[in-house]
Specification:
Strand order of the largest sheet: 1-2-3-4-5-7-10
Shape: globular
CATH class of the largest domain: Alpha Beta
Oligomer: single chain
Largest sheet: 7 strands, mixed
Strand content: 15-25%
Order of helices and strands: HEEEHEHHHEEHEEHHEHEHHHH
Number of strands: 10
CATH topology of the largest domain: 2-enoyl-CoA Hydratase, Chain A, domain 1
Radius of gyration: 20 Å
Amino acid sequence: MRSSTSANRISVRLQQSNSVSYETLLYETRGHVALITLNRPDRLNAWTGQMSLEQADAFERANNDPAVGAVVMTGAGRGFCAGADIQDAFKARLDGDAKGADTLLPGGMDWIALVERTKPLIAAVNGPAVGVGATMILPFDVIIASEEAKFGMFFVKMGLVPELASSHYLERRVGFAKASELCLTGDLIDAQEALAIGLVNEVTPPHRLMERALEMGEIIAGNPDLQLRMIKKLLRENGTETDTTVIQEREFTALQEARESPEHAEAVDAFLNKREPNFR
């Protein structure tokens, strides 16, 4: 359990902020957490190619900042993300607009690879998250939802199919039965049902959402970057691996690297000297 001193330090960090300007999102740092806010509230933060490019840049900005240990993403206004922008994406493509043909992931961007190499990601879902608004966060490390959040795999209702490897990640999160139901019906579910089926980690009152997400980010950021990234990789690679020999070999290789790291030495010294480790 964290000491009251630690809790006070977290509280102070959450109040500190440094911001960067983008067109479709806001980027700021709160202590050791990067906060990305999707910022098209008039369209319920509908996803566009410009937004995906800016998200990628913001993720890399966080990755390159040694003071940042975790990333929180949320939405401005009353929605998290209402899916792809129908006017700017689907309609443009159907009308033969060359810009609409590659609108959501410009240049063949690999969203999953981007998420996998990014520092621990926390989604703070403040409202509706449907279509790509839901699938983009399925490979995130933690999903925290407001009681006002709703989730929906709307693809079938738009004459489309799931993307961003969501047919894989959704099944891993909620199981085959619920994944099939959500994708084949396109129905919306509320935050409590999402929690019950394992789609989200926890549900908070609306006024507590950002406080809790940033708190979780600070807790994660209190751990060393190298080991956090190694754990993300192990969970990704071993989650569907059935060969336990291969699983243990991967873990052993990572463990050997971790044992030789300065982060491990710092943790041992901190424990022996009854102090908190300093990984940043």
